[in-house]
Specification:
Strand content: 35-45%
Largest sheet: 8 strands, antiparallel
Number of domains: 1
CATH topology: Elongation Factor Tu (Ef-tu), domain 3
Order of helices and strands: EEEEEEEHEEEEE
Number of strands: 12
Shape: globular
Length: 151
């Protein structure tokens, strides 16, 4: 029987914000639980049936755009970097970044040459520290779900 390995600390999210004069940044301080969610804006394919149900057509969609949502602890130092990036985009339109997500234990990765934050996260305050959920909208989102490394 084969064994595989996974560790949440082997997941990296990197942003290249040189266009915004903020340099590169490796995001840190992910919240416990679901850290990063990567999704396409729409399916790669759809199916259309004729009115009488006798002819079916698989439609290929060319939209490779998508989103990368990630949740950080409120105390994460990456929140300041992301806030600065959002402000740069708001004030000068200079918030477009390259983004990459990589599982350094496995072969899985996602990347986009152009992504932008949709805005600042919603904030809530409670009796314990909270989280901040950020979202990037991405062009040409490449998603390679290839599994973990066998040990």
């Amino acid at each position: 029987m084969a064994a595989y390995q996974y560790s949440s600390d082997a997941i990296t999210l990197s942003l290249d914000a040189t266009a915004a004069d903020l340099g590169g940044h490796i995001v840190e301080g992910f919240a416990d639980g679901s850290m990063i969610r990567i999704s396409r804006s729409e399916p790669m394919r759809s199916l259309k049936a004729s009115g009488d149900g006798k002819v079916n057509t698989f439609n290929k969609r060319n939209n490779r755009n998508g989103t990368i949502a990630f949740t950080l602890e409120a105390a994460s130092p990456s929140n300041k970097f992301l806030r600065d990036l959002a402000l740069s985009d708001q004030n000068s339109g200079n918030g477009i970044v390259g983004v990459g997500v990589k599982d350094t234990f496995g072969a899985e990765f996602s990347k986009s040459p152009q992504a932008v934050l949709v805005g600042p996260p919603d904030m809530d305050f409670s009796t314990e520290s909270g989280t901040r959920e950020w979202m990037l909208i991405c062009t040409e989102l490449d998603i390679a779900a290839e599994g973990s490394t066998q040990v």
